Amino acid sequence: MAFPDAPGAKPDQRFIHSTLGFRYLTLFVNDMDAAVERARKAKIKLSGRTPAKVGGNNLLTVFKDPDGNFIELIGPSGNNAERPKNAGATFFDAARTGDVVALRQHLANGQDVNATQNGNVHAIGLAALFGHVEAVELLISSGANVNQQTKDGGTALHGASFLGRTQVVAALLQSGADVSIRNDNGITPLDECGAPWDETVRNKVKFLNQTIKVNVKEEDVETGRPIVLEMLKKVQAK
Q: Would you list the domain boundaries of the chain?
């Protein structure tokens, strides 16, 4: 690519054995449709059978610039790009529904991963309670505090343990969740899942389904709680 009015300095030839400049450039775009439309308006001829699919929502487009350099564009089609389930979802709504696309967007825009809603609940606690393991893993990888407590002292592990969320519990434990933290009632995550399955526990599950719509099957809770209890005991024994 030539710049007649701003000639560059002679390159260090110890590692680059050509003074012709680059001949190939890859650019990542957010909307391939828009990028191709701009290229066509500029009367740029696309090379080969591009845009071509290269996996997932991504497309590949290739053309040459006026100096003969190959330009490769990679990115999603604007029509097929992954979008949040609810474009207006708040950070906490996204955690509650497991909308990882919206979570990523909020975090990319500077959202504090450990922020609380109304000074109480936190995103990782919501994602854990509602059983969204992918959202939990995303929040953890983004720096979420797995032992963050609500006003009543509960952690993400408390809620997930009570409902027998085995995959969520595994993700939390792998990231250092503390099995011994007590909430304000003196209850640990082991206590949450250690009580026998009876009408009292069943009614609590029904209450959560009716009031905050955790959408969990009672039989899944009944079978998951003993498994979670053993997982927590193994960690406690270390």
A: 24-76, 91-237
What's the pTM?
0.65
Rg (CA), the chain: 26
User: Residue 33 belongs to what H/E stretch?
Assistant: helix 32-41
Q: What are the residues facing 75 on neighbouring strands?
A: 59
Residues 6+ apart with CB under 8 A from 76: 30, 31, 32, 56, 57, 58, 59, 82
Beta bridge partners of 26: 72
Beta strands in 48-173 (DSSP E): 52-55, 58-64, 70-76, 116-117, 121-122
Instruction: Give domain 91-237's CATH superfamily.
Output: Ankyrin repeat-containing domain (1.25.40.20)
Judge contact between 76 and 93, C-beta under 8 A: no
Phi first, then psi, for residue 35 (nearest 5°) are -65, -40
**Per residue in 213-226, pLDDT tens?**
999 999 999 999 99
Q: Which two tokens stand for residue 42?
A: 């500029």
